[in-house]
Amino acid sequence: MTLAALIEAYRDGYLTRDELFASVTRLLSADPGALRTARAALNFDPVVGSEFESWLQELRDRPQIILGGRPVPVASALIDALAAEQSVVRQSVAEGWVLTPKRPLHVIPAIDIANRAAPISGVP
Amino acid sequence: MSTTSRAIAETTASAHDRRRIAVAALVSPRTVDGAYRGDSPPPPRELAPIDRPGIRSLTADPNAGGAGRGCSGAARIASGGMRLKRLWVALGASVALLRRELPLLARRRPRAHGTAQGSLSKPWRRNADGRRTILQAVELAKRWGIVVEDDVRIVASDGADGYLDSLGAEVDAAYAGFTSQRSYTWDDLLIQGRIVVKLRSAVLDSDEGILDVLGHEMHEINALRSMFEQRGRIPGAELIALAEVGRPGNLHDQAWDAGARVVRSFRGGDQ
């Protein structure tokens, strides 16, 4: 099931938020390279986007996740991708690319992505 | 997956006030009273104090410990008391160990139908007169004693959306997702006030399948509802222990029996 289909199912009232996030985690475990795409897609609703950031932070502790009673694997490659991203953020902060955040720390990766995508316009 | 490609029907069951009685009929007392904890290990104080070799030395060697030669009377009494205490703790540990292991031993016995990880009633007989609607399925379930509350919404898909397939080809229905990092209230399981059960459309081809699957899912959901009513918030890890496949004796496992019981009654015609 694709990311777009999952989001549509969520918007149609077919999935709870945690069902959506667990499903996306399953996709990302198979393809950690889709992390940024997933982030951007789930930001269709800022509340959902923010909740997903929290979910991603929690993934680093390798939680148990089940979906419809079935375990959802959290791939090491996904954990590595999250850690690598976090190190980029730390470096960005150290180099002054992003200011000391007024927002919660977990939003920083999204800010960093936005900065890199549009460095002139900055972050709203 | 488009909205049009998915056949969605909703339950519109009328309210009834026999909820607790019906729930109690479907849910085992262990789950109703909140004492049930899946197959999580018992409290450490029941198991930890003495290992098995220690138990053997206590019971097999009368000269072991401080009760042997050279001890004073007071020391012997104190030592005897200690031995009794240790024996008492050891017995407690053994009972706890047996209590924990017995369900596993029982599960190793071959079962009459299938395994505990799936339906005990398959293969289901297909209906001669074709597929039921969701409403008909819910009415059938209620007729056979399955409690389907008003806050349950059953949606059936034609399979094109692939959601259930993504969970596994053998998955006939699903609801909710949990992570061990969070805790949940009943409301967290709801979408617009209802818990949404995704049902494989093919199940609607068989009344036996409908009773098996809805019997299973409602057993779980009604038990969880009772637990949430009593406790308000439940840790995700505990919900996972209750609902995860492959944990013998947990709520999910029990639910297969609940579904199978209804199908047996249906096949026997003893409505």
What brief labels describe this structure?
heterodimer, A: 124 residues, mainly alpha, two-stranded antiparallel sheet, 6 helices, B: mainly alpha, 10 helices
Which helices and strands, and how do they pair?
The complex is a heterodimer of chains A (about 120) and B (about 270).
Chain A: H1 3-11, H2 17-30, H3 35-42, H4 46-59, E1 65-67, E2 70-71, H5 76-94, H6 108-117
Antiparallel strand pairs in A: 1-2
Helix pairs in contact in A: 1-2, 3-4
Chain B: H1 19-26, H2 29-32, H3 44-47, H4 52-60, H5 73-108, H6 134-143, E1 152-157, H7 163-167, E2 173-174, E3 177-179, E4 183-185, E5 195-200, H8 207-231, E6 233-235, H9 236-243, H10 251-268
Parallel strand pairs in B: 1-5
Antiparallel strand pairs in B: 2-5, 4-6
Helix pairs in contact in B: 4-5, 6-8, 8-10
What report would you give on this structure?
The complex is a heterodimer of chains A (124) and B (271). Chain A has six helices and two strands, in the order ααααββαα. By secondary structure, chain A is mainly alpha-helical. A two-stranded antiparallel ribbon of chain A has the order 1-2. In chain A, helix 1 (3-11) runs antiparallel to helix 2 (17-30) and helix 3 (35-42) runs antiparallel to helix 4 (46-59). The termini of chain A are far apart. The model of chain A has no long low-confidence stretch (mean pLDDT 81). With 271 residues, chain B is mainly α. Chain B has three domains: 1-40, no CATH class; 44-108, no CATH class; 112-268, no CATH class. Helix content of chain B is 47%, strand content 8%. Chain B contains ten helices and six strands; from the N terminus they run H-H-H-H-H-H-E-H-E-E-E-E-H-E-H-H. Chain B has a three-stranded mixed β-sheet with strand order 1-5-2, with no helix packed on it. In chain B, strands 4-6 form a two-stranded antiparallel sheet. In chain B, helix 4 crosses helix 5 (73-108), helix 6 crosses helix 8 and helix 8 (207-231) packs across helix 10. The longest helix of chain B is centred in the middle third of the chain and has 36 residues, at 73-108. Chain B is globular, with a radius of gyration of 25 Å. Mean pLDDT of chain B is 71; it is low at 1-71 and 103-116. Classes of the chains: A mainly alpha (124), B mainly alpha (271). Chains A and B meet through helix 1, helix 2, strand 1 and strand 2 of A and helix 7, strand 2, strand 3 and helix 9 of B.
